[in-house]
Amino acid sequence: MGLKKSVEVKPASGKLGVLLPGMGAVATTFIAGVLAVRRGLAQPIGSLTEMGTIRLGKRTENRVPKIRDYVSLAETSDMVFGGWDLFSENAYEAAKRAGVLENEQLAQIKDELSQIAPMKAVFEQAWVKNLHGEHVKKGSSKMDLAEQLMEDIKRFKADNGCDRLVAVWCGSTEVYREPTEVHSTLAKFEDGLRNSNDDIAPSQIYAYACAKLGVPYANGAPNMSVDIPCIQELARETRTPIAGKDYKTGQTLMKTILAPGLKARMLGLEGWYSTNILGNRDGEVLDDPDSFKSKEISKLGVLDHILQPDKYPELYEGFTHLVRINYYPPRGDNKEGWDNIDIKGWLGYPMQIKVNFLCRDSILAAPIVLDLARFMDFAQRADMHGIQEWLSFYFKSPMTPPGLYPEHDLFIQLMKLKNTLRYTKGDELITHLGAEYYD
Ligand SMILES: NC(=O)c1ccc[n+]([C@@H]2O[C@H](COP(=O)([O-])OP(=O)(O)OC[C@H]3O[C@@H](n4cnc5c(N)ncnc54)[C@H](O)[C@@H]3O)[C@@H](O)[C@H]2O)c1
What we know:
Blueprint: E1 15-21, H1 25-38, H2 48-51, H3 67-70, E2 79-85, H4 91-98, H5 103-108, H6 110-114, E3 119-120, H7 142-159, E4 162-169, H8 186-194, H9 202-212, E5 217-219, H10 229-238, E6 241-244, H11 250-264, E7 268-278, H12 281-286, H13 289-307, H14 313-316, E8 320-327, E9 336-344, E10 350-358, H15 361-381, E11 386-387, H16 410-425
Parallel strand pairs: 1-2, 1-4, 2-3, 4-5, 5-6, 6-11, 7-8
Antiparallel strand pairs: 7-9, 9-10
Helix pairs in contact: 1-4, 1-15, 7-8, 7-9, 8-10, 9-10, 11-13
Nicotinamide-adenine-dinucleotide is lined by residues 21-27, 84-87, 98, 121-123, 128, 131, 133, 170-173, 202, 220-221, 246-247, 249-250, 280-282, 285, 361-362, 364-365.
């Protein structure tokens, strides 16, 4: 990738339709938040595309525009929202039930929120055992269901006069299953859809429908929806951006902030024990061990990749890493996480760090949905198709091409994201070398 090559980016003109498979706590907190922000009723805190800046040139030049003024991104006023769910409640009712935002705040945007009703879902009980909903499509095969989704997408686009679309998965975590032969090529996957192969998950049917129509698809859950060869082949064919997986919010966000710091100072790690209590519907779904397995795999990977025990065996070989999530209804969406970190310093002396994070799950996730919707749309207008590794910043398990390990360090991820934006504008990448100030 040369340093001075600008990319032609089509302008963000017209309306952007944001499609959300799964309209529960995260999706409704995102939509309600955008509606409140664009009416000037609240601040978009946590969103890089709203609040973040980007330094250009030397530190002495004082050129630090907002990211949104630097690259062309969809305005919130140009966004229209739609989606699917197996519960027929509209976005106002779903937001009330989720209990994340206060009633008075929801009342201010009730009219707009109530008009957003989910389309019928593609759903199969075997993949999310703890949910039972009726607002579900029927079809003669999984291919028929994919075609119904494509009809939904086209109708939504026409009815709302959208210029462009993006999809951001905000649906539940599906049970963990390794990809099989049916996922190995697009032709086999399409055969599998026609034969309603049991190994094809509902989320993969959404991913297929979107990629087939060239709708960028970001995956907010740990599901194997776009990191399978068949969907990647389709994304290449239709030049569609794909990204995932699993929003990096509460405890994992903290881990990818703290672990790079410990490693930077060459402090060792004996063990990291993380436990959570969570009482929302996501917590209920994760109470099923098979869905938890998907989450656990997604959460466990980060420390190994950041600490690199193979390169620093004296510091990190064999550390213990445990992650627990307990469904505890009284807390609702307000998750509480505890981390006990056993570290070691000079001459091997042990020390401990305790982190008690009283967070709000959907409040942390909603700005990520906004940024992903915008950046995925940007990627498409810049013809950046396939895996969008520069968006690793937002994910617990960032996607990479086969054979390439993911970057989990939040600060490397942020630098990668900003350098990608500079690259698209033909601006100098920032290396932090700084030798020029001493010449
Ligand atoms: N909130 C966070 O901090 C966070 C962080 C990382 C990942 N996530 C993931 O984001 C997703 C959404 O979280 P949430 O708290 O909003 O959960 P939620 O249970 O409130 O919402 C999920 C919604 O998806 C719907 N759904 C399930 N399968 C579907 C299907 N096949 N088609 C259409 N709709 C379907 C459910 O009915 C539900 O309304 C979960 O997978 C969660 O693991 C959340």
